[in-house]
From TrEMBL:
Residues 61-203 form the Nudix hydrolase domain. Coiled coil: none annotated. Homodimer. Interacts with PARG. The lineage of its organism: Eukaryota, Metazoa, Chordata, Craniata, Vertebrata. This is ADP-sugar pyrophosphatase. Keywords: Hydrolase. It comes from the Eukaryota. It catalyses: 8-oxo-dGDP + H2O = 8-oxo-dGMP + phosphate + H(+); D-ribose 5-phosphate + ATP + H(+) = ADP-D-ribose + diphosphate; ADP-D-ribose + H2O = D-ribose 5-phosphate + AMP + 2 H(+). Belongs to the Nudix hydrolase family. Transmembrane segments: none annotated. One of its GO terms (molecular function) is nucleoside diphosphate phosphatase activity. InterPro entries: Nudix_hydrolase, NUDIX_hydrolase-like_dom_sf, NUDIX_hydrolase_CS, NUDIX_hydrolase_dom. It holds the Pfam family NUDIX.
Length: 223
């Protein structure tokens, strides 16, 4: 990688654009692999990093999966966010998450989100928006996701008694949480049960409180 000559206040300084030199396989399973990543840091030093990758990522894409923020709108009900609760083996406990899943070969993020929402929750929705590709745990892995926003018309016949389409070994409980009390309801669940909440969910909850109750306040923490 090209080295760049940068002028500081006093002396010129040699800096290097950080970059990956090589990736060596350390271990591989069916779903994930571990690699040793050799890279050059911003000071020009060569270092290594232990990197986890999914084996399932398609060659034509830079995104592994989708997360789904699905808003259920029904007459005479508060708008609810459709959440899922499931036992997650890596954590050894139940989690509260947005519905999510891996993108199949040739599938768009939007199509994957509509499919996963139907499978995991039974709801049929309409796309309302999609984020850029976002990273999930960059100090550990190259895993990426796109968050897809979906509106569900809960008054439609097919959404009145939604039926999940779960695969073998999938056990997903659907949890509906009112949007205007989202953080409070999440906190109630955490107090009541031994459950971990996904970071994306809790950040969303904090954002909703900000938007609903203090839209003109800066989000600073008081001592
Ligand atoms: N890391 C994984 N280990 C496994 O043993 N199995 C895994 C891993 N990641 C995914 N899967 C399996 C489990 C499901 O049968 C399929 C599809 O999962 P998907 O619903 O797309 O995604 P999640 O909601 O994140 O489980 O993959």
């Amino acid at each position: 990688m090209k080295q760049v000559l940068k002028m500081s206040n006093s002396e010129p300084k040699l800096i290097t654009a950080p970059h990956v030199v090589k990736e060596e396989l350390m271990a591989a399973g069916t779903w994930v692999k571990l690699e040793k990543t050799t890279y050059v840091d911003p000071a020009g030093n060569t270092r290594t990093w232990e990197t986890v990758k999914r084996t399932t990522r398609q060659t034509t894409t830079e995104v592994d999966g989708v997360g789904i923020i699905a808003l259920l709108k029904r007459t005479l009900h508060k708008d609810c966010v459709v959440m899922v609760k499931q036992f997650r083996p890596p954590l050894g406990c139940y989690t509260l998450e947005f519905p999510a899943g891996l993108i199949d070969e040739g599938e768009t993020a939007e199509a994957a989100a509509l499919r996963e929402l139907k499978e995991e929750t039974g709801y049929k929705g309409e796309i309302a928006g999609v984020t850029p590709v976002t990273c999930l745990d960059p100090g550990l892995s190259n895993c990426t996701t796109q968050i897809v926003l979906i509106n569900i018309n809960g008054d439609e016949v097919e959404n009145i008694h939604p039926t999940q389409q779960l695969g073998e070994g999938e056990f997903v409980e659907v949890v509906l949480l009112p949007l205007d009390e989202f953080q409070m309801k999440v906190d109630d669940l955490l107090k009541k049960e031994k459950i971990l909440v996904d970071a994306k969910v809790y950040i969303f909850a904090m954002g909703m409180v900000q938007a609903f109750f203090k839209p003109r306040e800066l989000p600073v923490l008081k001592q």
